[in-house]
Amino acid sequence: MPRSIRLLLIGDVHFPESEGRPEVDHRDAGVSERLSRIAAQSPFTRCLRAIIQFLKNQSPIEAILICGDLTSHGKLEPYKKCAERLVRALKEAGFLNKVHVTFGNHDIDRDSARSSPGSQFEQLADFWRSLGTDVLPYPHHKSIRATAEGGQTAVVYTVNSCLGCGEMRGLPKNIEKDIKAIFSKFEATATPEDAFSLLQEQLDTPLFDDADLSDMCEKVSGMAANELPVVLAHHNLLPQAITRIDIYTEVLNGGMVRGRLSSLGRPVVYVHGHIHSDPVEVVVNPAEQGGECVFISAPLFTKGFTVLDVHCSRAGSPIGLSVTRHELLEHGAVVPRPPIRIPISKRTGLRDSDPNYETVAAHLQERSTIKNIRLSMNERYPLMSEKDLSEIVCEGFWACRLDIMNLDQAPEKWHVSIKP
Ligand SMILES: [Fe+2]
Question: How many angstroms separate the alpha carbon of residue 69 from the centre of ligand 1?
Answer without folding.
Answer: 5
